[in-house]
Design brief:
single chain, 230 residues, alpha/beta, seven-stranded parallel β-sheet, 9 helices
Length: 230
């Protein structure tokens, strides 16, 4: 059904747009994902999402414990409609549930931290399996629970007096560095599956077509009608 819907909705966008979808999807990945824990500054959180979209990270996980996530439209520049954003805000402490879920799905939890036990970003091994980069607040960083549940720790090497960067800068550097490694390494299966590409493409078509829900409803009604006739 997904493929049939994609084929139908594809009639309502230009061939150039469809080609662009396919080109971008070929560089998208779920091998690497990003987790934002309790980010309270809209500018920084939005800048991270923009970096994720620019460098091909499809899934973003946003943990809302004390702080509700807000988008700054002037910063994201429309990037959110191309991302799969998962928000966790049902419990008093959503960190444990989010990170356990990612571990269950096979992700290594990699905390970004300037502490001594953190490894140099340049030494991080991308070949050991898919991974989730964890980023915390500007003021306190990641929570003790997130740090305790992390499997690995990385830091960006610096030579100045200041020991840490703005979160949006940190995320951009890490994401660009690690996706560049993935793109050069043919031994890692970092691409989306064909099924994943179809599902994401369907979402993109829905977001690109005016009143797509009405077009989709008419298609499904006709589909069910034809099915009954046979």
């Amino acid at each position: 059904m997904t493929r049939a819907l994609v084929d139908h909705l594809s009639q309502f966008v230009s061939e150039r747009r469809l080609q662009l979808f396919d080109t971008v999807l070929n560089m998208r990945t779920r091998y690497m994902t990003v987790v934002l824990e309790d980010i309270y500054q809209p500018h920084n959180a939005s800048a991270v999402l923009r970096s994720c979209e620019c460098f091909g990270i499809q899934d973003i996980h946003i943990i809302e414990n004390k702080n509700e996530y807000h988008i700054n439209p002037d910063v994201v520049m429309g990037s959110t409609k191309w991302l799969s954003i998962n928000r966790y805000n049902q419990f008093d402490d959503n960190t444990a549930n989010t990170l356990r879920d990612l571990k269950t799905k096979g992700y290594r939890l990699v905390a970004t931290s300037p502490h001594k036990k953190s490894a140099d970003l340049r030494d991080f091994d991308t070949t050991r399996g898919k991974f989730a980069l964890l980023f915390g607040t500007e003021l306190k960083g990641l929570s003790p629970l997130a740090l305790d549940m992390a499997d690995e720790f990385i830091r960006i090497p610096m030579t100045g007096f200041t020991e840490s960067l703005n979160i949006s800068v940190t995320a951009a550097i890490c994401i660009h560095h690690l996706t560049s490694i993935l793109h050069r390494d043919n031994s890692i299966s970092w691409h989306l599956t064909d099924e994943e590409k179809q599902e994401i493409k369907l979402d993109w078509l829905r977001n690109s077509i005016r009143k797509s829900h009405l077009i989709e409803k008419a298609f499904l009604e006709q589909f069910q009608k034809n099915k009954k006739e046979f």
